User: Which sequence fits this backbone?
Protein backbone atom coordinates (compact mmCIF):
# COMPACT_ATOMS: atom_id res chain seq x y z
CA UNK A 1 0.00 0.00 0.00
CA UNK A 2 1.50 3.33 -1.06
CA UNK A 3 2.29 5.48 1.97
CA UNK A 4 0.25 8.36 0.61
CA UNK A 5 -2.42 8.78 -2.04
CA UNK A 6 -2.85 12.21 -3.59
CA UNK A 7 -6.43 12.99 -4.58
CA UNK A 8 -7.67 15.93 -6.65
CA UNK A 9 -11.43 16.52 -6.89
CA UNK A 10 -13.03 18.92 -9.37
CA UNK A 11 -16.26 20.76 -9.75
CA UNK A 12 -17.54 20.85 -13.34
CA UNK A 13 -19.60 23.71 -14.78
CA UNK A 14 -22.23 22.55 -17.27
CA UNK A 15 -22.75 26.17 -18.24
CA UNK A 16 -19.38 25.89 -20.01
CA UNK A 17 -19.92 23.02 -22.45
CA UNK A 18 -17.49 24.01 -25.21
CA UNK A 19 -18.16 24.57 -28.88
CA UNK A 20 -18.15 20.91 -29.93
CA UNK A 21 -18.38 17.53 -28.18
CA UNK A 22 -14.70 16.99 -28.91
CA UNK A 23 -13.82 20.36 -27.36
CA UNK A 24 -15.77 19.50 -24.20
CA UNK A 25 -14.08 16.09 -23.94
CA UNK A 26 -10.68 17.68 -24.54
CA UNK A 27 -11.25 20.26 -21.78
CA UNK A 28 -12.11 17.48 -19.32
CA UNK A 29 -9.15 15.34 -20.40
CA UNK A 30 -6.72 18.26 -20.11
CA UNK A 31 -7.84 18.97 -16.53
CA UNK A 32 -7.28 15.34 -15.57
CA UNK A 33 -3.83 15.22 -17.15
CA UNK A 34 -2.86 18.56 -15.60
CA UNK A 35 -3.92 17.26 -12.16
CA UNK A 36 -1.81 14.14 -12.66
CA UNK A 37 1.18 16.24 -13.75
CA UNK A 38 0.80 18.31 -10.58
CA UNK A 39 1.12 15.15 -8.49
CA UNK A 40 -2.38 13.69 -8.19
CA UNK A 41 -2.69 9.91 -8.18
CA UNK A 42 -6.50 9.95 -8.33
CA UNK A 43 -8.78 12.51 -9.96
CA UNK A 44 -12.49 12.68 -9.13
CA UNK A 45 -15.11 14.41 -11.33
CA UNK A 46 -18.84 14.99 -10.69
CA UNK A 47 -22.02 13.08 -11.41
CA UNK A 48 -23.73 13.93 -14.72
CA UNK A 49 -20.57 15.61 -16.00
CA UNK A 50 -21.23 14.26 -19.50
CA UNK A 51 -24.70 15.78 -19.73
CA UNK A 52 -22.65 18.71 -20.98
CA UNK A 53 -23.01 16.84 -24.28
CA UNK A 54 -26.80 17.03 -24.24
CA UNK A 55 -26.89 20.28 -26.21
CA UNK A 56 -25.13 18.44 -29.05
CA UNK A 57 -26.93 15.12 -28.84
CA UNK A 58 -30.50 15.61 -27.68
CA UNK A 59 -31.74 12.99 -25.21
CA UNK A 60 -29.97 10.67 -22.79
CA UNK A 61 -29.73 7.75 -25.21
CA UNK A 62 -28.14 10.05 -27.77
CA UNK A 63 -25.65 11.29 -25.19
CA UNK A 64 -24.78 7.65 -24.46
CA UNK A 65 -24.16 6.94 -28.15
CA UNK A 66 -22.12 10.11 -28.62
CA UNK A 67 -19.91 9.45 -25.60
CA UNK A 68 -19.32 5.73 -26.00
CA UNK A 69 -19.07 5.55 -29.81
CA UNK A 70 -17.32 8.81 -30.66
CA UNK A 71 -15.51 10.17 -27.59
CA UNK A 72 -14.63 7.23 -25.33
CA UNK A 73 -12.07 5.60 -27.67
CA UNK A 74 -9.86 8.72 -27.65
CA UNK A 75 -10.52 9.54 -23.98
CA UNK A 76 -9.59 6.04 -22.85
CA UNK A 77 -6.31 6.18 -24.78
CA UNK A 78 -5.40 9.64 -23.48
CA UNK A 79 -6.18 8.73 -19.87
CA UNK A 80 -4.73 5.21 -19.74
CA UNK A 81 -1.59 5.87 -17.72
CA UNK A 82 0.25 3.59 -15.29
CA UNK A 83 -0.14 4.45 -11.61
CA UNK A 84 -2.89 6.96 -12.38
CA UNK A 85 -6.63 6.75 -11.74
CA UNK A 86 -9.61 8.89 -12.73
CA UNK A 87 -13.31 8.74 -11.95
CA UNK A 88 -14.69 10.56 -14.99
CA UNK A 89 -17.98 11.54 -13.41
CA UNK A 90 -21.05 9.77 -14.76
CA UNK A 91 -22.52 9.30 -18.23
CA UNK A 92 -25.66 7.57 -19.52
CA UNK A 93 -24.88 4.03 -20.62
CA UNK A 94 -27.26 1.87 -22.66
CA UNK A 95 -26.91 -1.84 -21.99
CA UNK A 96 -28.86 -5.10 -21.95
CA UNK A 97 -30.27 -4.23 -18.50
CA UNK A 98 -31.43 -0.76 -19.53
CA UNK A 99 -30.08 2.77 -19.33
CA UNK A 100 -27.75 3.36 -16.38
CA UNK A 101 -26.24 6.43 -14.76
CA UNK A 102 -22.69 5.08 -14.92
CA UNK A 103 -19.52 6.28 -13.21
CA UNK A 104 -16.67 5.73 -15.66
CA UNK A 105 -13.34 4.74 -14.09
CA UNK A 106 -9.85 4.24 -15.48
CA UNK A 107 -7.25 2.80 -13.08
CA UNK A 108 -3.82 1.93 -14.50
CA UNK A 109 -5.56 1.97 -17.87
CA UNK A 110 -8.15 -0.60 -16.74
CA UNK A 111 -11.70 0.46 -17.63
CA UNK A 112 -14.02 -0.02 -14.64
CA UNK A 113 -17.49 1.22 -13.78
CA UNK A 114 -20.00 1.79 -11.02
CA UNK A 115 -23.69 2.27 -11.82
CA UNK A 116 -25.88 4.39 -9.59
CA UNK A 117 -27.92 2.01 -7.44
CA UNK A 118 -30.72 4.18 -6.06
CA UNK A 119 -32.35 6.75 -8.33
CA UNK A 120 -33.99 10.06 -7.50
CA UNK A 121 -37.65 10.62 -8.49
CA UNK A 122 -36.56 12.65 -11.53
CA UNK A 123 -34.20 9.97 -12.87
CA UNK A 124 -37.13 8.06 -14.36
CA UNK A 125 -35.32 7.39 -17.62
CA UNK A 126 -32.63 5.36 -15.82
CA UNK A 127 -32.58 1.82 -14.47
CA UNK A 128 -30.86 1.08 -11.14
CA UNK A 129 -27.48 -0.60 -11.14
CA UNK A 130 -26.58 -3.82 -9.37
CA UNK A 131 -23.97 -4.09 -6.66
CA UNK A 132 -20.96 -2.11 -5.49
CA UNK A 133 -17.69 -2.84 -7.30
CA UNK A 134 -14.53 -1.94 -5.30
CA UNK A 135 -11.12 -2.03 -6.96
CA UNK A 136 -7.45 -1.94 -5.97
CA UNK A 137 -5.11 0.90 -6.92
CA UNK A 138 -1.55 1.37 -5.62
CA UNK A 139 -2.40 -1.04 -2.82
CA UNK A 140 -5.42 1.02 -1.72
CA UNK A 141 -8.97 -0.32 -1.91
CA UNK A 142 -11.34 2.16 -3.53
CA UNK A 143 -15.08 2.22 -4.16
CA UNK A 144 -17.54 4.67 -5.68
CA UNK A 145 -21.04 5.56 -4.54
CA UNK A 146 -22.84 7.93 -6.88
CA UNK A 147 -24.55 10.87 -5.14
CA UNK A 148 -27.79 9.60 -3.52
CA UNK A 149 -26.17 6.18 -2.98
CA UNK A 150 -23.95 7.60 -0.24
CA UNK A 151 -27.06 8.75 1.64
CA UNK A 152 -28.41 5.22 2.12
CA UNK A 153 -27.15 3.26 5.15
CA UNK A 154 -27.82 -0.03 3.33
CA UNK A 155 -24.90 0.75 1.05
CA UNK A 156 -22.67 1.47 4.01
CA UNK A 157 -23.68 -1.90 5.47
CA UNK A 158 -22.84 -3.58 2.14
CA UNK A 159 -19.30 -2.20 2.49
CA UNK A 160 -18.83 -3.59 6.00
CA UNK A 161 -15.74 -5.83 6.21
CA UNK A 162 -14.69 -4.78 2.68
CA UNK A 163 -11.64 -2.89 3.97
CA UNK A 164 -12.39 0.22 1.91
CA UNK A 165 -9.67 2.85 2.21
CA UNK A 166 -11.18 5.58 0.03
CA UNK A 167 -14.82 6.11 -0.97
CA UNK A 168 -15.36 8.44 -3.94
CA UNK A 169 -18.65 10.30 -4.40
CA UNK A 170 -19.46 12.05 -7.69
CA UNK A 171 -22.51 14.21 -6.92
CA UNK A 172 -25.05 16.59 -8.45
CA UNK A 173 -27.35 18.63 -6.20
CA UNK A 174 -29.55 21.62 -7.04
CA UNK A 175 -30.16 23.07 -3.55
CA UNK A 176 -28.27 23.60 -0.31
CA UNK A 177 -30.42 20.90 1.28
CA UNK A 178 -28.98 18.40 -1.20
CA UNK A 179 -25.47 19.71 -0.57
CA UNK A 180 -25.99 19.23 3.16
CA UNK A 181 -27.40 15.71 2.81
CA UNK A 182 -24.43 14.57 0.75
CA UNK A 183 -21.93 16.21 3.13
CA UNK A 184 -23.51 14.90 6.32
CA UNK A 185 -23.88 11.36 4.96
CA UNK A 186 -20.40 11.30 3.42
CA UNK A 187 -19.00 12.29 6.80
CA UNK A 188 -21.05 9.53 8.45
CA UNK A 189 -19.71 6.95 5.98
CA UNK A 190 -16.14 8.00 6.89
CA UNK A 191 -16.91 7.36 10.55
CA UNK A 192 -18.83 4.11 10.00
CA UNK A 193 -16.46 2.50 7.54
CA UNK A 194 -13.21 3.94 8.87
CA UNK A 195 -12.11 5.35 5.52
CA UNK A 196 -11.54 8.57 3.63
CA UNK A 197 -14.59 9.89 1.72
CA UNK A 198 -14.33 12.56 -0.98
CA UNK A 199 -17.11 14.44 -2.80
CA UNK A 200 -16.97 16.10 -6.22
CA UNK A 201 -20.04 18.22 -7.17
CA UNK A 202 -21.60 19.42 -10.40
CA UNK A 203 -22.18 23.19 -10.57
CA UNK A 204 -23.58 25.79 -12.92
CA UNK A 205 -26.69 26.19 -15.06
CA UNK A 206 -27.25 24.12 -18.17
CA UNK A 207 -29.77 23.44 -20.90
CA UNK A 208 -30.29 19.92 -19.56
CA UNK A 209 -33.70 19.47 -17.98
CA UNK A 210 -32.30 16.85 -15.60
CA UNK A 211 -29.53 19.09 -14.21
CA UNK A 212 -30.56 22.62 -15.12
CA UNK A 213 -29.26 24.18 -11.88
CA UNK A 214 -26.41 22.81 -9.79
CA UNK A 215 -24.62 23.83 -6.60
CA UNK A 216 -22.09 22.04 -4.42
CA UNK A 217 -18.87 21.95 -2.44
CA UNK A 218 -15.68 19.93 -2.72
CA UNK A 219 -15.03 17.98 0.44
CA UNK A 220 -13.00 15.23 2.07
CA UNK A 221 -13.74 13.46 5.36
CA UNK A 222 -11.69 11.16 7.58
CA UNK A 223 -12.63 8.85 10.45
CA UNK A 224 -12.98 10.60 13.83
CA UNK A 225 -10.30 8.50 15.51
CA UNK A 226 -7.08 9.20 17.42
CA UNK A 227 -4.86 8.53 14.40
CA UNK A 228 -6.49 11.49 12.64
CA UNK A 229 -6.53 13.86 15.63
CA UNK A 230 -3.93 16.25 14.19
CA UNK A 231 -5.51 16.28 10.70
CA UNK A 232 -8.35 18.28 9.19
CA UNK A 233 -11.12 15.69 9.54
CA UNK A 234 -13.83 17.62 7.70
CA UNK A 235 -12.25 19.64 4.90
CA UNK A 236 -14.97 21.44 2.94
CA UNK A 237 -14.63 24.14 0.30
CA UNK A 238 -16.93 27.11 -0.04
CA UNK A 239 -20.19 26.44 -1.87
CA UNK A 240 -19.77 26.89 -5.61
CA UNK A 241 -22.56 27.81 -8.01
CA UNK A 242 -20.44 27.89 -11.17
CA UNK A 243 -16.93 27.49 -12.51
CA UNK A 244 -14.30 24.75 -12.63
CA UNK A 245 -12.60 24.49 -9.23
CA UNK A 246 -10.30 21.87 -7.74
CA UNK A 247 -9.10 20.82 -4.31
CA UNK A 248 -6.26 18.49 -3.44
CA UNK A 249 -5.67 16.21 -0.46
CA UNK A 250 -2.77 14.04 0.67
CA UNK A 251 -4.23 10.88 2.19
CA UNK A 252 -2.14 8.94 4.71
CA UNK A 253 -2.03 5.15 4.68
CA UNK A 254 -0.23 5.09 8.05
CA UNK A 255 -3.16 6.89 9.72
CA UNK A 256 -5.54 4.21 8.46
CA UNK A 257 -3.17 1.46 9.61
CA UNK A 258 -2.66 2.99 13.08
CA UNK A 259 -6.42 3.36 13.46
CA UNK A 260 -7.07 -0.27 12.51
CA UNK A 261 -4.43 -1.55 14.94
CA UNK A 262 -5.91 0.44 17.81
CA UNK A 263 -8.38 -1.87 19.52
CA UNK A 264 -8.66 0.22 22.68
CA UNK A 265 -10.60 3.27 21.51
CA UNK A 266 -14.24 3.13 20.45
CA UNK A 267 -14.34 2.74 16.68
CA UNK A 268 -17.59 1.77 14.92
CA UNK A 269 -15.64 0.60 11.88
CA UNK A 270 -14.04 -2.17 13.96
CA UNK A 271 -17.14 -3.27 15.86
CA UNK A 272 -19.36 -6.13 14.82
CA UNK A 273 -23.11 -5.69 15.00
CA UNK A 274 -24.89 -7.71 17.66
CA UNK A 275 -27.68 -8.39 15.17
CA UNK A 276 -31.09 -6.84 14.56
CA UNK A 277 -32.45 -4.58 17.27
CA UNK A 278 -35.91 -5.58 18.46
CA UNK A 279 -38.56 -2.88 18.37
CA UNK A 280 -40.39 -2.41 21.64
CA UNK A 281 -44.12 -3.02 21.46
Assistant:
Amino acid sequence: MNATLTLTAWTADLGDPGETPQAFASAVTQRVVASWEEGADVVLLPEFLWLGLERFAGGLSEVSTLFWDQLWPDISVALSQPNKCVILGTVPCCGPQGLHNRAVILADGRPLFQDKLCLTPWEKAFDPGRGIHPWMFLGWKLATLVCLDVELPEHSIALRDQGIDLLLVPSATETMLGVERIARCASARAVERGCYVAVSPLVGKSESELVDENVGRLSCYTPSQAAFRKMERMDESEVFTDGWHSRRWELSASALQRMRRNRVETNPALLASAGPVATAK
Remarks:
- The first strand starts at residue 4 and ends at 10.
- The chain is about 25% helix and 30% strand.
- The chain has a mean pLDDT of 95.
